[in-house]
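Final report, closing paragraph on structural work. Over the funding period we assembled a curated collection of sequence-structure pairs, and we close with a single example.
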Amino acid sequence: MSRSSGSSTDVVRAVLAPQEIVERVLAGSGPGVAGRVVVVSETSEAALRWANSTMTTNGHTTSRRVSVISLVTVDGGTAAGVVSSSVAVTDPAQLDELVAASERAARDAGPARDAASLPEPGADDPAWTDPAAETSIEVFGELAHGLSDVLGGTLRQYGFASHSLTTVWLGTSAGVRRRWVQPTGSVELNVKTPDLSGSAWAGAATRDFTDVDVVALAADAGRRLDWGKRRVELAPGRYETLLPPSAVSDLMVYLAWSMEGRAAQEGHNALAGPNGPRVGERLTDLPLTLFSDPAAPGLEYEPFLVTTSSGDGISVFDNGAPMRRVDWVRDGTINELVYSRAEASEFGTTFTPAGDNLLLTGGPSGSAATVDEMVGGTEHGLLLTCLWYIREVNPATLLLTGLTRDGVYLVEHGEVVAEVDHNFRFNYSPLDVLRRTTQVGATEHTLPREWKDWFTRAAMPTLRVPDFNMSSVSLGR
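Its predicted structure, as stored:
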């Protein structure tokens, strides 16, 4: 509800329902308007925090955003203008202002390179008329129950859990009416020794926290603290390295973000070859498959495209287009790159939308080894925990640099024998991770530590890389 002040009385106006907002915006048609898109999103979010083995804060927030995209005929083609607002819409006049502003933005932008007719609607969406989904603090019920045991131990516990439900309504002048509810959740915890000299991290991504065992997470972090009772110095160099699922996910997410078809066609990225995009190039004889799939169990995302901005591989003109499984790498071979519909038409290829999850498997003959089993098969090497501060060094090879974080462990004769007394800076390309991997563990849901604010839906295996480049020592643990 919203209250507006008048000269003698206050008038309380109801916030317009998302479906009403969509229909009101699409009902109007100004001169030269070739089409319109409306995106309404409402996010309900709950959070829980604990520090020094004590629950500290919890809370719940709700937010809404309305975006209007006007497609306007201009000299030379069709232009797109996007205007968004997070102000509660209580008066149709507010929508008129958004529409007018989006039309002005389109005319100011000039003809769009990605212009295309809006996708035709598919089947009716039975959930279109449903209200927004809501989460609450109660989603943490089982987590809080487990924390009561964890916080009562001798180690110091710090952590944060969040859960959100984002409901999106998409309407277009072509007749598309789609609704989707996206659950997103994660939990991270740091376990520290009583004197704060040692620290270990564990984390997990989740849809609803029913699959999160916080006691097991804390136990895993506690085991790493035990490994850290002995510390050793190691010089920089190339080491056989076990990259656990979280570290693998951060590297593979960067690779997925870099698989832009236009840049490969024009020779601007690591997927560009001497004779065009490197689709079809074999990276490894291992049956590694890197893919996105909107129907992947536990990692589902919108089965239709929703965007409020255009760029390489993504276009506002594609709103409502169906999403699909895309194998970026199939059985060790580069298989597909990202193309908007306009780019696919320009380059004579297939529309390939970017995905909102990422999975890596070893294929039908891939190993199902656990991390412990892979440690047991290591004569001399390193076991990482996670990565952070990842940055691109060379776009031509997708060489990345970054830091190890929260524990690098020395493995000797099949056992973890010590924690390295510092972190390393690494330099390595995720393409070379795929090329050089010699063993693939079991694929499991994981939390990308570096990219968790933008990307949480991932399933990765542990990978054995024989020559991972620890280029220098980084102070701190």
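The CA atoms of residues 214 and 246 lie 17 Å apart. The first strand starts at residue 2 and ends at 5. We thank the funder for supporting this effort.
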